[in-house]
Specification:
The chain has two domains: 9-99, Arc Repressor Mutant, subunit A; 112-363, Penicillin V Acylase, Chain A. The chain is an alpha+beta fold and 365 residues long. It has helices at 18-28, 30-47, 55-69, 71-84, 88-96, 188-195, 201-209, 275-285, 292-299, and strands at 9-11, 112-116, 121-129, 137-142, 151-156, 163-166, 171-176, 217-223, 226-232, 237-244, 249-253, 312-314, 320-330, 335-340, 350-357, 360-363. α2 (30-47) packs across α5 (88-96). It has nine helices and 16 strands.
């Protein structure tokens, strides 16, 4: 069975604890979270069956790294596990399965883009992964607490965060790079949420660069101060694109390493087969974007289908790259659009629009 959650908008209740948020999330989407956990465990073990004997040990290690880094977010995961009646190992796999040691699943694609015009600061990404994930996408509205401002988080049921934006108009996006130096570290969706607690671009950068990461990712961080692409691995990190306040242009990343030093660590055999095509398309099209509507059209573009920016490429279990969702933000105006599916090819496509309303987000569609 593959439950279609219909891209729910999950609004956590203000005044509740992180564990209570996770508990309510887990209870409401219990069946779907169980299905997704089983799917992700199966995908991971199909890639490396030898991991089956070490799952509990490795999950515990990653959980403890994450607890030291952001204890309240681990409490949210623990609440999800209780609510969904699953083990913590199940939830760690659901959140972090691409980063388990010696695992790299090339279907985790994504294109991250930051564009600055004379009047606009635009940031966002597609979320490309195994087609099975699409029906489990959700949008979580996290209220402000003593630790952070309000956040909108694009994610999967049972997962604390894939990308997001806060009411300081800070955004974080992520795409996978395949490197050979994975080691036990924290759960990367925890890092996404922790980075969203920052109040400035500099704080976001410091959070990322101080994190004990498990495997390689490119992180897009952006705010009204500018935008940066940071390729971060356990061994080293490089800034591979940046625009500061007042500069005009576009920076983007797909799924091959751009950093001179990071590229030396790249696992070429696991590289996404669509990465260079999407990068070429973004090179041709990004400069034409002038506003948020243009930007969403860019990330849902189908030129060169199925190897398009909105990807529909599936060559089998080894390398499916399917755009399941996406999000774009105007970081000057505080306007945001998140979607699930493909507006051209899905009968059950769904999207939400938000605007900044004081210190919170107001859903307008």
């Amino acid at each position: 069975m593959n439950t279609n959650c219909q891209f729910p908008y999950i609004k956590y209740q203000s005044g509740k604890s992180s564990k209570e948020w996770g508990l309510s999330h887990g209870e409401e989407y219990k069946a779907a979270i169980k299905e997704l956990a089983e799917i992700r465990r199966g995908l991971m073990l199909a890639k490396n069956p030898a991991l089956s004997r070490k799952l509990d040990e490795m999950a515990h290690e990653q959980l403890e790294f994450s607890r030291k880094f952001a204890p309240h977010l681990v409490q949210e995961i623990e609440g999800m596990a209780i609510g969904a009646d699953l083990t913590l190992t199940d939830l760690v796999i659901l959140n972090n399965y691409t980063d388990f040691r010696d695992i790299s699943l090339p279907e985790e694609g994504c294109s991250t883009v930051h564009i600055q015009t004379p009047s606009e600061i635009l940031s966002g990404q597609t979320w490309d992964m195994h087609r099975s994930a699409k029906n489990y996408m959700c949008l979580v509205h996290v209220p402000a607490t003593d630790l952070h401002s309000a956040q909108l988080v694009l994610t999967l049921v049972g997962c604390v965060g894939l990308m997001g934006v806060n009411t300081h108009n800070g955004l974080i996006g992520v795409n996978n790079i395949n490197t050979k130096n994975a080691k036990t570290g924290l759960i990367w969706p925890v890092l996404v949420r922790k980075t969203l607690e920052a109040k400035s671009l500099g704080e976001m950068r410091s959070t990322l660069l101080s994190a004990p990461v498990t495997s390689g990712h490119n992180y897009l961080i952006s705010s009204p101060e500018g935008g940066e692409h940071l390729e971060i691995t356990p061994a080293l990190s490089e800034t591979v694109g940046a625009l500061s306040r007042g500069q005009v242009g576009g920076i983007f990343h797909t799924n091959h390493c751009l950093g001179y030093e990071v590229e030396k660590l790249e696992d070429k055999a696991s590289m996404s087969s669509t990465t260079f095509k999407r990068y070429e398309l973004l090179s041709k099209k990004t400069y034409k974007v002038t506003d948020l509507t243009d930007f969403k059209h860019l990330l849902t573009d189908h030129d060169e289908f199925p190897m398009s920016i909105c990807s529909h490429y599936e060559s089998g279990a080894q390398d499916p790259s399917f755009t399941c969702a996406g999000g774009v933000s105007d970081l000057k105006a505080g306007n945001h659009i998140f979607w699930r599916g493909c507006p051209a090819h899905d009968s059950d496509y769904k999207e939400y629009e938000f605007e900044l309303d004081g210190m919170d987000f107001k859903k307008i569609k």
